[in-house]
Structures are given as C-alpha cells and as structure tokens.
Amino acid sequence: MLKVCKKAKPCQFPNHPHLKMMKLVLRENWYTQKPKKWAYAGTLFIISLVYALSRWHFMGHDLSASGGEVFQKHEYWRVWSALFVHADLAHLLANTPLLVLFTYLLISRFNILVPLMAFFVGGLLNFIVLFTMPPEGHLLGASGVVHAVGALW
Fold first, then answer.
1. Is 62 helix (H, G, I), strand (E, B) or coil?
2. What pLDDT band is residue 8 in, cutting at 50, 70 and 90?
3. What is the pTM of this model?
4. I want to staple 108 with a disulfide (CB 3.0 to 4.6 A). Which of 17, 39, 113, 142 is the partner?
5. Quick one: DSSP state of residue 15?
6. Whole-angstrom Cα distance, residue 111 to residue 20?
7. Per-residue pLDDT reduced to its tens digit, 109-148
C-alpha cells in the first residue's frame, strides 16, 4: 500500500507520481526566452522611419513608386521608399498597430535583420508588381510588409 505524502513533512518517496508532475520543465526555445533588451529600440527605429518618411511624403515630396519613374527614369530607390510612405494619416494609422506588434515580436525573438529583410524583400516584390501595372499607377504603403512580418512571426 502506498503512503500519501503529507504537506507538513518532506516527501519520503522521490518517485511518487505527484513529484514527477512537479518536475515538468519547459524546454527553452524562442517563445520561452526573455525578449532582447534592445527590441523596443529596434521597433521604435523602424516605426520612426515609417512615420518620418510618411510625414515627408505628406509635405509634398513624392516618394511613391510607379512604373514610369522606376523603369523609365531609373529611380530604383522608389520601390523601397514606397514601402515606408502612406497615402494619408488613416492609412498610416491602420498599418501601425500590427506593424509595431509583429516588428517587436520578431526583433525580440530573433534580431532587427528579420523585419528589415521583410522590407528588402517587399521592395524586390514591388519591382515585379510594377512590371504588371500601367506606368502611371502608383504603389505606396506598408500593408504588404505588415502581412510579411505577420507571416514571418
């Protein structure tokens, strides 16, 4: 017959089933690690860049991408600047919450290169999209990057 351990005394049976349950330890992985200390700073950097370039765009500097500007005028930088600017404040505010959340999660678990690679790949994909659009069509906004960082997470 098994004796039941009393709470007041130390258990005399090291292989008792209730002790085995108490020794359950989670394996450490990306999700159980503490976030990196600089994750807030990295997220703030990326969001500040998005807000600063959007503000510059709102003041009249065209940073959007179109087939005519990229392929005819050879302004290739526009495929990446278009990822950071937005059409209006509502567009910017709609993209911000998920961009902040997923950027923070990716930086805190991996590093800042992961969300920056999402912006880089987004620019490369803009090249493909501009090939299929008429030359006067414009691209702008971080919606594609928001979906990319969400998918990466």
1. coil
2. very low
3. 0.71
4. 39
5. T
6. 37
7. 888 898 889 888 888 988 899 989 898 888 888 888 888 8
